[in-house]
Amino acid sequence: MVFDTALLSLVGTRRPHLLAIGEPYHGEPAFPRLRNRILETLVGHGFRSIAIESDRAAGLAVDDYVQGRRDEVDLSTGISHGWGAHPATRELVDWLREHNGKLSPAERVTFHGFDAPTEITGAPSPGPLLRELCEYLGVTTTDLDRLVGGEDRWTAAEIMYDASYSPGRSPEAAALRGLAEDLRSRLYADAPRLVGDTSPAAWNRARVLATTVIGLLTYHAAMAEPGTRSQRIERLLAARDAVMAQNLLDILAMERDRGPVLVSANNAHLQRHPSRWDTHWEGQHLSALWNGAGSIVSPLLGDRYLYVAGSLGASGPVGLGQPEVGTYEERLGPQTGIFAPPVGSDLRPRVTDLLGYSPLDAATIETCDAILHVGSEPGAADAARIAGRPAVTETRIEAGSEMPSHTWGDRFFFAGEDRMRPFATIVGHDVPGFDERSRLSGPGRYRLNIEIGRTEFRNLFGYGPEEFAAHRDGLDFARTDRLMPHPAYAVQGWASVVNPGPATADEVERLLERARVRAAGREHRRRR
User: Fold this and answer.
1) CA distances in angstroms from 364 to 35, 310, 326, 411, listed in the order given
2) Tell me: the pLDDT tens digits for 408-461?
3) Residue 451 contacts residue 492 (beta carbons within 8 Å)
4) Using an 8 Å Cβ cutoff, are 8 and 38 in contact?
5) 369 three-class SS
6) Which of 47, 203, 283, 402 is at 20 to 30 A from 210, Cα to Cα?
7) Of 171, 196, 226, which marks where a domain is finished?
8) Own/partner long-range contacts of 439-443 (Cβ < 8 Å, ≥24 apart)
9) What pTM does this model have?
């Protein structure tokens, strides 16, 4: 990646045990894709594990898969909070599987989740975890089913709105917490026999299950505590991050002799200062202030904790426009990269109504070690989404080069070792006398071009590339956020979209991945 030098300089200077890289908005897929490419770089420099914002117990199945201990894995259950459905997650897991397959067990990269199996809106029943733990220990607990009761009593939607519906502080829940503690103690007391009868990996799985179910029951207890909605949300966020911090410290202890750990999550979970949440929900103003996992772990690890905050300058596909002048994001600039925190008493936080997006603030600037910034120039987020895909290389024509000035800033994306035929491009200028119909000379305008092939072209537009001339005059090529034939290269099977936005985001994602796979296959055949 273009910022590998800055990344390796930072890591080489600080030599962290935990490198935490945050993201400001879960809805921007550039960040998990950049995370994947960052991991690829770091494993060449001693990193041997990654921990992401996902349920730790569920993630054990994913690690079994990437270590080659199982032949398949269901990411919808192995990765929590819906992240398993994200293409970048599958790309990460597939890369780990392929990478580890070439290495000895000691050199393989371990996958960890470090989250709890909880959401603000609810949490699952502790029953399945307790039953699996009892089965491993060979314990018959006749009261377990009675204490757990119906699974739906733990997951009822009413719990979110009324603490009295939660069983979290019932006598049965207290008994379950006591049982879980007893099972964890027995796990350690009988460790020699259990490890001998099973394996260290099986024993560790049981240990993670015990820790997870104790944290889960603590979370249910917090859900049962009455208070205003803001008070309840604050307690739940604090309980979740306390579990995340405990998991990070445990993962670090497990991995310390193998190498540093790369951690990826929302900024709120990784920043050094307390986390704040303010929003309007169902007509109410809700706020919370709590210590995130980074705020807990950082003082315990000192300089061994390195925090790189995530920053998003602009992204048309998620509806985030250009940052205002004088904001931290604007000062960080148009380019994507890893930068030192901007300084200046005149800088201020950005104001936006994008739900779930956290702009940089003074506390983050003062306490982070660096910033991973997806730039604010037109097309920067799109470029990061493409360049973060597996084995993709980006070439950019720099301003002032010997190339024609109307090509300066244009980006070309290649699959594998191919440097002759891009599968996608991003351009920001009209080509006089040849390609002017998109009217790219206007401020902030750019165009994403994708080689989709003849068959997909016909499927999308209802006619083949060879028939494009008959339809060209009826098309408004300057219209934004609409997929249409490329104004100049449609006959070669190219499509384009000016200023991609929310309306075309999903289709663009599909077409880009299809184009990348086609290009990679073409390159593979060429090299045989």
Assistant:
1) 20, 10, 16, 32
2) 999 999 998 878 899 999 999 999 989 999 999 889 999 999 999 999 999 999
3) yes
4) no
5) coil
6) 47
7) 226
8) 439/477, 439/478, 440/498
9) 0.94
